Amino acid sequence: MTTKLNEDALRYLRGSGIEPITEKAWARFWESGSTEWGGDECGCPDDRCIGHHHAADELCGCLRALVAEYEEAEKEAIELWNRHQAGDEGAIADGGNWVRQRHDYGLTGWSYDVVVDDEAGIAIRSDDNPQWRLLWSAGSADQW
Fold first, then answer.
1. What Å distances lie between residue 91 and 45, 87, 101, 136, CA to CA?
2. CA distance 37 to 29
3. Cα(75)–Cα(77) distance, rounded to whole angstroms?
4. What is the Cα–Cα distance from 112 to 22, expressed in whole angstroms?
5. What does the alpha-carbon distance between residue 16 and residue 127 come to, in Å, rounded to a whole number?
6. Which one of 14, 26, 82, 137 is at 20 to 30 Å from 120 when CA atoms are compared?
7. Digit-coded pLDDT (tens) for 20-41
């Protein structure tokens, strides 16, 4: 099921992250590379959050806590990407560990060298989704 993030969630995400967090980036991180948001409209990956974790008229506490996890993973991805771009051979093993921490079930491959929808980054594929998709985007492939 695809859901859209509500305005409170979008406003909070735009003010967070190393760069403002887009709905696409948020979905990609929590939905294992999918750019379609499947969580609740408040920004929590748990699609039952509103009414279960908080009332509909309350801000989502999950979102605020999860942004910190996203920001840490984003810092790690940027460091890994920069190391890979610089030719650091250790970035391959460390990148594999980073990917498996975020998407271990049914993982069939990952790469720094796959372009998806004109974006470069850390890409994965899995048994349930054999198409390459970005787990983290470094931005336009033209700049790399």
1. 29, 8, 15, 15
2. 10
3. 6
4. 21
5. 33
6. 14
7. 899 999 998 888 788 888 899 9
